[in-house]
Amino acid sequence: MHYPNGKKYTAHTSSSLPLKVNQPVSTFANRGMNLEKLLNLSNQWYLDHHMAVVYKKPTPIQVVKVDYPKRSQAKITEAYYRQASTTDYNGVYKSYYIDFEAKQTNLKTRFSLNNFHPHQIRHMGRCQKQGGITFAILHFTPLGETYLYPYDSLKEDWSAFEDHQVASIPLKKIQKEGYLIPSCGFPALDYLSALDQYLQSFNHNSK
User: 120 among the known binding-site residues?
Assistant: First the structure.
């Protein structure tokens, strides 16, 4: 088979086409995507099984420019993500209001406190003062381990961080004061089982 100009047609197969590989961009958002996806799947599983109602908070957006191609329509043409003012997730479990931040790290022996922001720590403290249950979910990617870390422990670490005494939380401290979250498939991350253990300790210490 030939083209009209006489040039022979060559069929392109998958082996003859160059492979295009997209290299992932290393950003805080991308690094957190895997953990976020697991938590979202877990939350949907909890919701479907009537165990808890927990949702991911939407990231606020600053709209800069809006076009109106039609009178009845508005099209956002320029917008930016703003820094979230609170934490990642909130909801209700066993009549408790729960509020937590989810973070992950590529380190093996410690968790950098630079991953947190002052407004997140303040928000968790305010929620806990009103009777809510607040904590952080910390995932160590190289170890494949995820922990529920209570706010009281995080607050202690943060105070030391602000005083320039520490820069990170040792894994051993997280293992001692936190609760290992099972990764059992259904749900993807069963953090409610770890939360049950924390609630037992929390209620015992509150008496």
Answer: yes
Residue 88 counted as an annotated binding residue = yes
User: What residues are paired with 93 via a beta bridge?
Assistant: 96
To 10 degrees, the CA torsion angle through 157, 134, 88, 159? -20
Residue-wise pLDDT for 96-105, tens only, equals 999 999 999 9
CATH class of 35-55+85-205: alpha beta
- C-alpha closest to that of 120 among 87, 142, 153, 90: 87
Neighbouring residues of 121: CB distance < 8 A, sequence distance ≥ 6 = 154, 155, 158
User: Does residue 187 have a cis peptide bond before it, meaning omega lies within 30 degrees of 0?
Assistant: yes
| Residue 27, annotated as binding a ligand | no
- Token reading at 92: 């209700």
